């Protein structure tokens, strides 16, 4: 029997993870099986433990179970701890290890695939939810001149800053962004899922080189349209992040980092 992995979430029918990991296994010459499980709100933990006792070696975790997966683990990486969420589990030596590769996947996509290093740049991150929690540590480690985090609910932003006090990290209200400019702007709010636009003051994106939307497969979201209207040349959605976080998990489980370019190209839907 080949080594077994799976993604678990609810709903799970639109997941791309089995396709991505299947392609990785092909290109890396690895023999494994990767399935998808519809998580149960009542019995999520029991499902994970059952998957492990059936011989499973690792899982990807998606909404709404990332926090529960984190809590279920015996050992958690630093970035998973800051995110308070796990998007990958590994079962080894009778223990459950938790990781969070969302932030590092996003960083790799921006720096390596899109060719926009964060070092010494001014970076604006919109939102203070789970996606931002995952991104903060890898982003700060990449050495931006300043990382500004804007959120509507300042209490949430303050709570994050209190957990990670860093000289380059600043939190801001949206209206305080008026008159400022940023090299790279990442929309990590869930606004695009409901077709909304974060309340960015007019002109903030005027000198921006890259506008990155975390949601993927939604075409030109209101945020990306706003960026386009303000002359931002480089627009990206989160498909590259999705593939890069998967590659990190694959490497963590299998010890081999697969090539991602062809997989990203295969999943990319043109932004229009
Ligand atoms: P996720 O795990 O996807 O980050 P979340 O934890 O529910 O989701 O967080 C959603 C984030 O999107 C929050 O930061 C939320 O802002 P508030 O904390 O101020 O509510 C942000 N968000 C959602 N809709 C938004 C909108 N229309 N404009 C700006 N921010 C929005």
UniProtKB/TrEMBL annotation:
The UniProt transmembrane annotation reads none
State where NADP(+) binds. Answer: 78, 127-131, 214, 238
Cytoplasm: present as a keyword of the record? no
Q: What is its EC number?
A: 1.1.1.25
Q: Name one GO molecular function term.
A: shikimate 3-dehydrogenase (NADP+) activity
An example Pfam family from this entry, by short name, is SDH_C
Record's keyword terms, sorted: Amino-acid biosynthesis, Aromatic amino acid biosynthesis, NADP, Oxidoreductase
Q: Which CDD domains match?
A: NAD_bind_Shikimate_DH (cd01065)
Alphabetical GO CC annotations of the entry are: cytosol
Protein name per the record: Shikimate dehydrogenase (NADP(+))
Species per Swiss-Prot/TrEMBL record: Pseudomonas putida
Task: Identify the coding gene.
Answer: aroE
